[in-house]
Design goal:
Structural class: alpha/beta
Keywords: Oxidoreductase
CATH topology: Rossmann fold
Distance between the termini: 32 Å
Organism: Kaustia mangrovi
Protein name: SDR family oxidoreductase
CATH superfamily: NAD(P)-binding Rossmann-like Domain
Shape: globular
Bound molecules: NADPH dihydro-nicotinamide-adenine-dinucleotide phosphate
Radius of gyration: 17 Å
GO molecular function: oxidoreductase activity
Family: Belongs to the short-chain dehydrogenases/reductases (SDR) family.
Number of domains: 1
Largest sheet: 7 strands, parallel
Length: about 250
């Protein structure tokens, strides 16, 4: 496909899992793609090599989401390297769990830094560069809208925060014809949540279609939002969870 020819995308947390699938898919659709990673240098390099082997252009940037300045610098590095930025995908995230009363303020700060503060930093920096027709997509979670088990309160807090932020920024950037949306995956087979993990049967038990997403399923939805057919969709939430929240 070529619907993103000439576009440049930045995907945070593109070294593994959903972010890597999004990076590969946007590149397949014609975009030049920058990815960030925290520690997986080799895996990030492998994603870049795979995109290049398929005839695309990509680069990897080390930027820990715990450091807002590093996230801003990653946006600037992508713009300098590729000359523009059209699509920002806020994907990097962590899943810290524990019962309330045992979760600490340090846990709170870590989760909010990675899952929320870094998104604010990236969106703020990208907003200075995104042209008419630009796209912002954040990866939330179906756990933002429904919390079916204990111990998830902090993670759900962080992902729910992105919903309000998405809607607010959609209003800010709408006059510039930039769309801003959030995609809420349910159980998706990655290192974070393997389909053969200890709790995977419990998760499948909630679903109308009891099958984990593959990362590429989420990437397809992001690619649609990033592409020309998504131009009138903004401030919206998309749940892709096999009906777990239905
Ligand atoms: P993985 O743990 O498989 O991959 C996480 C990615 O994010 C890696 O590329 C990792 O980089 C990066 N990352 C993690 N912490 C940081 C950090 N501090 N700074 C920069 N990058 C970081 O997760 P998934 O692919 O499963 O998850 C991707 C997103 O989807 C997350 O936001 C997650 O909350 C969300 N999600 C996932 C679901 C699932 O079932 N898998 C369900 C719902 C939402 P590195 O390799 O360097 O560590």
């Amino acid at each position: 496909m070529t619907s993103l020819n000439g576009k440049v995308a930045l995907v945070t947390g593109g070294s593994r899992g959903i972010g890597a699938a999004i990076a590969r898919r946007l590149a397949d659709d014609g975009a030049r793609v920058a990815i960030t990673y925290a520690t997986s240098k080799d895996k990030a390099a492998a994603v870049v090599a795979e995109i290049e082997a398929a005839g695309g252009e990509a680069m990897a940037i080390q930027a820990d989401n715990r450091d807002g300045d590093a996230v801003v610098a990653a946006v600037e590095t992508a713009v300098s390297a590729f000359g523009r930025l059209d699509i920002l995908v806020n994907n990097a995230g962590i899943f810290d769990i524990g019962p309330i009363g045992e979760l600490t303020l340090e846990d709170f700060d870590r989760t909010m830094d990675v899952n929320v503060r870094a998104v604010f930093a990236a969106v703020s920096a990208a907003a200075r560069h995104l042209p008419e027709g630009g796209r912002i997509v954040s990866i939330g979670s179906n756990l933002a809208g429904r919390v079916p088990w204990p111990t998830i309160s902090l993670y759900s807090l962080s992902k729910a925060a992105l919903v309000g932020f998405t809607k607010g920024v959609a209003r800010d950037l709408g006059p510039r014809n930039i769309t801003v949306n959030i995609v809420h995956p349910g159980s998706t087979d990655t290192d974070m949540n393997p389909a053969d993990g200890e709790l995977s049967d419990t998760q499948r038990g909630l679903m109308a279609i009891p099958r984990y997403n593959e990362a590429g399923d989420v990437a397809g939805l992001v690619a649609w939002l990033a592409g020309p057919d998504g131009r009138s969709v903004t401030g919206a939430e998309f749940t892709i969870d096999g009906g777990a929240n239905a």
